[in-house]
Structures are given as C-alpha cells and as structure tokens.
Amino acid sequence: MDTLNYKCPNCSAGLTFDSKEQKMKCEFCGSTYSLEELDKLAEQQDTVEEDKTEKWKGFEPEQWQSDEKSNMAVWNCPSCGAEILAEKTTGSTVCPYCDNPMIMPEQFKDSYRPDYIIPFMKSKKEAKQALKAHYEGKPLLPKVFKDENHLEEIRAVYVPFWLFDLDTAGRFSYEATKTRVWEDDDYNYTATRFYHVVRAGKINFRKIPVDGSKAIDDTMMEAIEPYEYQDLTEFNMSYLSGYMADKYDQEPDELTGRVYERMEQSVKDCFEASVKGYATVTPKQEKVTVTNKGEVKYGLFPVWFLNTKWNGKTYSFAMNGQTGRLIGDLPVGKDLAVKYWFKCHIPLTIAMTAIVTALRFMGVI
Ligand SMILES: [Zn+2]
Ligand SMILES: [Zn+2]
Question: Helix count (H) and strand count (E) of the chain?
Fold first, then answer.
C-alpha cells in the first residue's frame, strides 16, 4: 500500500497542515493551498482515461452446433413472453415464472450458445426441504402454501446471465473523526480530531453477473446471489438434460447501466472499507471511472422457483440452485432481505493519505 504525500505544487517540498489557516503550507516557499485545491490538482495529474466505447469488446457469441439444435426446442409463454429452452422430449410444460401453459413453436429459433454453466448442486428434495423450513414457525400461513402437491411443482430453471469484465479507477475523499474521552477530578473531556482522508486506486472486475431475462425480477435474483465461480464450468449440452433453460431476451449492450450500477456500488464499498480506525467517516467526493470495458461471456446459473397464488396475489419463492440461498415472499411476516452480491474480496491497489485538519477540544463539566 502506498502513501500519498501532499507535495508543494510550486517547489515540490513536503506540505504540512496549518490548523490556524486550515490550509496546507509549504515551509520552504511559503505557499498555501486548500485541501480542495490539492485534491483537484492530484485528480488532474491522474493518468486515468475513461473508456467511452459503447459496445462491449470481445463479444463473439458462439452458435449452437447442428446436432445440439436437433435435440432442443423453444417453448413460448403467451402470458409473460418468456422463452424457455428444453429438450424436445420434454412433455407439455408450464411457464416457471407465471405458471401458464407454454407453446412449442414449429421452428427452433436460434440463439447464442452459453460459454459457461454452473450446474445444479441442490436437488428437488433439498429445495422442498428448504421451502418447508422457510414456512416453519408461521402457523398463520394459508394451507395452499404447504400443500404437498403444490410443493411438488417447484421447478428447476437455468437463468441466463451475462458476465462482464471491467477495469475501473476510483478517487475518493472522506471527512473522518477520531474521539478521545477522559476525565479528571473536575471535568470530563472529549477531544475530536478531524481528518481529511483520500483514497485513489484501481479495481479490475472479472465476470460481474447481470441476468439477461426480463421475466425475472432483478431484486429477487440479487437476493439469492452470489454464485460461487469455482463451479463455473464450460458449457456442455448434457447439463441441460432434464432441465429448462430460460433464453436471454436482453443483450449485453442493453445492460450496461445495470453493470455500472453494480460496479459503482462495489467500488464505493471497497474504498470505504479501507478507511479504518475512525469513529465516523463521511464521504465528501466520489469519482469512479471505467478505464476498460472488457469481454462479455454468457452463462447459465441454476435457480429453483415456486409461485403460489393466494388472495389474488402471487407469492414467489426462489432458491439459488448452487448455494441454497433463498428468498421467499409470504403473506405473513415480510422477510425480503436483499443483500448486495459483492463482498469486498478482490485485490485493490490503493494509495492512501490521512491528515489531521482540525482538533476540537471540549471540556464539559
Ligand atoms: Zn513550496
Ligand atoms: Zn410466463
């Protein structure tokens, strides 16, 4: 980890903070600068260049091979518009999202072949058990939810995800404080130190997942993430045997906004997590630049779904088919807890500085 030191822009000598003037001062040439001025100058010297290309690079979709195509069929849901890929031998089937009967068109509509798949790790039995456990302790739950025949309708679906590579640079500043409290015979004392904290660095993201299906509620998908990439395998037709796969209906370039949203939140979290040891931290300036829009890949991730209709409303249950993380909307007791997908665990190259800008001292009787 590097430390950023404020150097005099005029003569390059080190600067120190003058608490009286609330400015950085050069002992050598006598110049003074506000912290804002210095941060502006540092920002201008950053060699960070934004990648403004509109399209994602390296998106060369693979096509299905002809023997694969001959085994597959696409079902359409006339109600919600979902398109589901499954083996031709699959009997009549209902839409996993809205429970309406689906129709198989005569023509196989071609689409991209997935690059990767995370195979189902959780069986139907495990999904049903998880659902039952989710219902436990809710005696007011209507019977229709717990009905064994209904639970049997839980469906395994491979959900289409686009996986984006992205390089970013961030520059953040915070106002932070440290407090010290002590007492003597007469007084209680509180001393608060104020810090101007600056962080600058780069984060390179690999395979940021964003689902490519309009039929699926984004909040719901985010709630059952993350998927662990150690099981990410090269796609092979045999994984689809006995399963349905939702066909993407949003292409990567349509999803750039959502990719950036996820990335920006993660960058902010990572940088803020690096500001440690203070009593309070308030972000002052946040700047995130995309320096390289990279490759996109196409993956299928496993989800168990069950919808329950009750009192004119549809309640949805979804379980991550790899990790078992679940979300379930129930008419009794809301527990929709959306967790952010990204834990700050990727290496972050970062330069940091913290200087004391003020010391407030209070004596309280
Ligand atoms: Zn100077
Ligand atoms: Zn549907």
Answer: 7, 17
